[in-house]
């Protein structure tokens, strides 16, 4: 078990959590395609490239975009990083999720599982 000395809970650490927007995949659906499928539904599969290009041009695109793009919330990494006080991590232990704590002073890394302690 990891023992912390007095004052350690005031230390700031980088917390990495799964991106809630892309669910850790690093990619999301292109918003233009979401509008396209909403408008055309199953009929969209029967349209020609010329028809698709015309539709996307009318919606501000210079070309037909890829259906998936990198998530801008996590810079396509699938992970969100936040700088928080170590004490704040222990306020709600009911959230049983894994975090990687990286000491901002480069003293090392600890994998921490809130329901199981340090690994």
List keywords for this structure.
single chain; 119 residues; alpha+beta; two-stranded antiparallel sheet; 3 helices; rod-shaped
List the helices and strands and how they pair.
Elements: E1 12-18, E2 27-29, H1 31-40, H2 49-58, E3 68-70, E4 79-85, H3 86-89, E5 98-103, E6 109-113, E7 117-118
Antiparallel strand pairs: 1-4, 1-5, 2-3, 5-6, 6-7
Question: How would you explain this protein's 3D organization?
Answer:
With 119 residues, the protein is of the alpha+beta class. The chain folds into two domains: 1-28 and 74-119, no CATH class; 31-65, no CATH class. The protein has helices spanning 31-40, 49-58, 86-89; strands spanning 12-18, 27-29, 68-70, 79-85, 98-103, 109-113, 117-118. A five-stranded antiparallel beta sheet has the order 4-1-5-6-7. A two-stranded antiparallel sheet has the order 2-3. Residues 93-109 and 111-119 have low confidence and may be disordered.
Structural class, from secondary structure content? alpha+beta
Order of helices and strands: EEHHEEHEEE
Helix content: 10-25%
**Amino- and carboxy-terminal Cα gap:** 9 Å
Quick rundown:
This protein is of the alpha+beta class. It has three helices and seven strands. The protein folds into two domains: 1-28 and 74-119, no CATH class; 31-65, no CATH class.
């Amino acid at each position: 078990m990891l023992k912390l000395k007095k004052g350690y809970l005031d230390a700031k650490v980088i917390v990495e959590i799964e991106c809630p927007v892309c669910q850790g995949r690093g990619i999301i659906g292109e918003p233009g395609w979401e509008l396209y499928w909403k408008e055309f539904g199953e009929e969209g599969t029967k349209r020609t490239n010329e028809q698709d290009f015309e539709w996307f041009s009318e919606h501000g695109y210079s070309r037909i975009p890829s259906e998936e793009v990198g998530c801008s919330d996590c810079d396509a990494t699938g992970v969100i990083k936040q700088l928080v006080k170590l004490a704040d991590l222990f306020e709600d232990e009911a959230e049983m999720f894994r975090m990687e704590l990286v000491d901002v002073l480069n003293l090392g890394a600890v994998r921490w599982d809130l329901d199981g302690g340090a690994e």
